[in-house]
Specification:
The structure holds two protein chains of two kinds.
Chain A: E1 5-13, E2 20-28, E3 32-36, H1 43-51, E4 56-63, E5 66-70, E6 75-76, E7 84-87, H2 99-103, H3 109-113, H4 117-125, H5 141-154, E8 159-163, H6 171-188, E9 192-196, H7 199-205, E10 208-213, E11 216-222, H8 223-228
Parallel strand pairs in A: 3-9, 3-10, 7-8, 8-9
Antiparallel strand pairs in A: 1-2, 1-4, 4-5, 5-6, 10-11
Chain B: H1 6-35, H2 41-53, H3 56-67, H4 74-79, H5 88-112, H6 116-124, H7 129-140, H8 142-157, H9 161-166, H10 177-186, H11 190-214
Helix pairs in contact in B: 1-5, 1-8, 2-5, 3-5, 5-8, 6-7, 8-11, 10-11
The chains are: A alpha/beta, B mainly alpha.
Amino acid sequence: MTAAVDARFRASVGEGEGAFSVEVEFTLERGVLVLFGPSGSGKSLSLQAIVGAVRADRGSLAVLGETVFDVERAIDVPSHRRRIGYVPQHHSLFPFCSVFENVVFGLPRTHRRTVSRETHDLIEELGIGHLRSAMPGTLSGGERQRVALARALAVGPRLLVLDEPFASIDRQGKTELLGMLKALLTRRNLPALLVTHDPSEARAVGDTVVTFERGRSLRQTSVDALADAP
Amino acid sequence: MEDPFFPVFLSLRVALTAMVFVVPAGIALAWLQASRAHRFRGFVDGLVLLPMVLPPSVIGFFLVWLFGRRGLFGHALNGLGVRLIFTPWAAVLASATVALPVLVKAAQPAMETVPRELLVVGRSLGLAPVEVFFRVVLRGAWRGVATGIVLAFVRAIGEFGATLMFAGNIPGRTNTMTIEIWSAYQGGDESRALSYVVVLTALGLATVFLSARIAPSPSRPR
């Protein structure tokens, strides 16, 4: 069976004393892989390389069997053609667009004016139907991330990556969102990578976990092993 | 007697033509400086800033030195039958030189405030880099860019020193409003000078009002 994600690469940022690099090695067969570890361990930099915001120094990444980049073979699919949905922790919405405009932002121009059945269903599924004309500045943290999730899913990605999307949401909102995310991914059979340093988040959504420490991905285990960790 | 409206229309034509070059070049330069930590960032920054800190006569001298009949590029242009010096095009070039840094310095900080995450999100949604620029960067920074365009236009229409040196004071050909004010005042025709002073002051006040309305501020979205 083709793995959903096969990542073996090194990526770096900064220069001189501020330089930081991460060595990544993991495979996601299906479901949700949690990139787990303390702040500064290289989780987010790994995601940046996967979405194409940072170029890898060496190694390769394949999504659903298709090479996304392979430094040694000089293959590098531009980030806008990777079909990898991205939900960041901060600044997740376009502040100059309403909720609806945000959701349809990545759709072809002709699909942006009228609501297709799929978009309508997605908006309802995420419980943001009543917020369509609201501006991002008026939304709560949880509502903002629901909109960001709807927008990422609306364009039909083949992989979803989420960089600590629930970090600034209250506990109740987080629990609700985690359940919703899990259901959405399962229903769509969509593989996902989730960065978090919160074990409860990892357990709620993840199937497998890869632990990061000091710029390296160490071991890949089932999410239950993480649950048993002290 | 020369048409009193000629300097007004010439100034508008010169400033608008200068803006045709300044707007795309200024926006592209601002984005280049805002988006990348390239090796020549400091050099480009200095080059862009130079016309803001140099006296207008020095800018005029450089323009003559570069584009004059025997200038560095002027000589070659002359060979092609193109003469810039003492033409309205010289006034355009002088205006564009002083207006460009005004636009870059207003647009660049506005573009820098567009969060990097939004650019990554834009690309992840399938937007090509040029679409990300127009739909995310320019839309997010439009207030700063628009303010820059307004201020650059006013700087272009108000250019005097470099224009006088490079385009000269040829009535009916290169006498823009600012040159006409100086010329009329020198000739003792204060009322003629005053009429152009009024036009330029009104334009300045309108600019102050307009830029205050559109400039980014913490109390309103960018």
